[in-house]
Specification:
This protein has helices at residues 36-42, 109-121, 126-132, 145-162, 164-169, 180-192, 194-202, and strands at 54-58, 61-64, 67-70, 94-95, 98-99. With 211 residues, the chain is mostly helical.
């Protein structure tokens, strides 16, 4: 999400995460994607109702957590709030005769499936596979970002150690299109800064404890 306006001078947003209204901090975060043109169009909507979640849509009205809003009786209502993926408790990816498909890279289900398939092809034990890669918690709330990002980063570092060429060639890898020298530099920097990154992200989880 974008930093508050007071922070922008010293810490400009990278643009990988944003919010429609920069003055309102959302409570949910479910990996929704949008391009810059779509974001600009969404920001043009002026008739915004902030009264909590919809409880019921009736004849001529919408009942929300904090009140009721009038609506034209023949209006068409479209529910865009459904979660595409349920948040489930993580479990081992590999067990005897079983592969449990889960996200191992935050918000990248197809890339995660490819990573798990590649791990299955390695001539190692299931125990070792589970040490290399673990399930990344699917985000539901904004505070889920640190733990999801931390697990994803650790998985990526471990995979670089065991299958660097495969990762470089995989078109599902977001860094696949980087120039070779920039890709290698980024992978090396990620490994070198691993401890500092882990400590930094753990500091964002004071109530949940270290990961």
């Amino acid at each position: 999400m974008e930093p508050a306006p007071a922070d922008r001078a010293s810490r400009p947003p990278a643009g990988s995460m944003c919010r429609i209204d920069t003055g309102v901090l959302p409570s949910k975060w479910r990996c929704a994607t949008v391009d810059r043109r779509e974001l600009a169009a969404l920001r043009e909507v002026e008739d915004v109702v902030r009264m909590g979640r919809v409880q019921r849509v009736g004849a001529g009205e919408i009942q929300l957590d904090a009140g009721t809003v009038d609506a034209v009786e023949d209006s068409l209502f479209i529910d865009c709030s459904a979660n595409g993926l349920a948040k489930l408790e993580p479990q081992p990816l590999f067990s005897e005769g079983r592969v449990s498909l889960q996200s191992v890279f935050m918000c990248q289900q197809t890339f995660s499936a490819a990573l798990i398939a590649r791990l299955e092809l390695l001539d190692i034990s299931d125990e070792r596979r589970n040490q290399i890669c673990t399930a990344a918690p699917h985000p539901e709330l904004k505070q889920d970002l640190p733990s999801s990002l931390l697990t994803s980063t650790q998985n990526l570092i471990n995979m670089h150690r065991h299958m660097p060429l495969w990762l470089r060639r995989s078109r599902l890898n977001a860094a696949h299109h980087e120039a070779p020298h920039r890709y290698l530099l980024g992978a090396g920097k990620l490994t070198l800064l691993q401890r500092r990154a882990v400590a930094s992200m753990n500091s964002m989880l004071p109530e949940q404890g270290s990961v």
